[in-house]
Write a sequence for this structure.
């Protein structure tokens, strides 16, 4: 089992890596469009700042968290509205994001063992929340990197993204209006250092294999499966790669093949 303090260290490090990418950018570059339609680099960071803010409310003031949902004129637009509300000039936005993510790490560290935090349509442990924040930070960092046409080095932290991708297999099917499969799926991935990562029964008939980075890009809907070196064996595994979704909420449009841009989480 992953230790919460280790997760929080990885969350801070993942945020710091993205921070180092955007902090030196000229002001004009913050307006660069990213693969998410209508979202600039500034919107991506504003989204992370907003999500850290509502996660902090969930950890410290559940009633205030619920109020943000009930007061929303259209809950289906919470994400877009949140990004717009938190958008600000780069220096101000950076300061807000840094302060918020630091406060969130401290708040999650203080959640009592076994405590559950309210979230959209579910409740989460502090460990699950930290894992989800790593996933979101990595995924939106991928959008920023795409906008800047740079390739970020992978780290051991993508294992958390992969783990969440495996754990949300049933959610991906349900989000697309399909019945969650009962057959187990074996997932075997190659980590950034060549290490082998695996989940599921070793004798499962359905299997997904390939690079960990590709799997993470798929489950965060940052690349179409046709552009990735993932191999699915069995009908359940094959269908999963079409609906995989590690993030909460309705299904995204994903990305079109050959690097085509579509909606992201």
């Amino acid at each position: 089992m992953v230790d919460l303090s280790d997760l929080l260290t990885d969350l801070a490090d993942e945020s710091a890596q993205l921070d180092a990418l955007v902090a030196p950018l000229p002001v004009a570059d913050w307006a660069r469009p990213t693969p998410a339609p209508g979202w600039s680099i500034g919107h991506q960071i504003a989204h992370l700042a907003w999500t850290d803010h509502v996660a902090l409310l969930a950890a410290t003031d559940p009633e205030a968290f619920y109020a943000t949902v009930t007061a929303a004129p259209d809950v289906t637009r919470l994400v877009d509205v949140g990004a717009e509300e938190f958008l600000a000039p780069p220096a101000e936005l950076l300061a807000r994001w840094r302060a918020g993510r630091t406060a969130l790490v401290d708040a999650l560290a203080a959640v009592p063992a076994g405590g559950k935090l309210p979230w959209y349509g579910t409740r989460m442990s502090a460990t699950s929340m930290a894992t989800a924040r790593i996933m979101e930070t990595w995924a939106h960092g991928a959008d920023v990197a795409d906008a800047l046409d740079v390739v970020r080095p992978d780290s051991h932290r993508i294992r958390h993204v992969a783990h969440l991708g495996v754990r949300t297999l049933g959610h991906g099917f349900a989000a697309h209006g399909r019945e969650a499969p009962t057959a187990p799926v074996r997932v075997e991935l190659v980590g950034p250092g060549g290490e082998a990562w695996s989940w599921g029964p070793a004798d499962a008939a359905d299997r997904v294999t390939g690079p960990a980075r590709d799997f993470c890009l798929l489950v965060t809907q940052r690349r179409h499966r046709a552009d990735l070196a993932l191999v699915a064996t069995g009908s359940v595994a094959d269908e999963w790669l079409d609906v995989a979704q590690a993030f909460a909420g309705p299904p995204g449009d994903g990305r079109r093949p050959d690097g085509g841009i579509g909606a992201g989480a």
The longest strand covers residues 185-190. The chain has a mean pLDDT of 94.
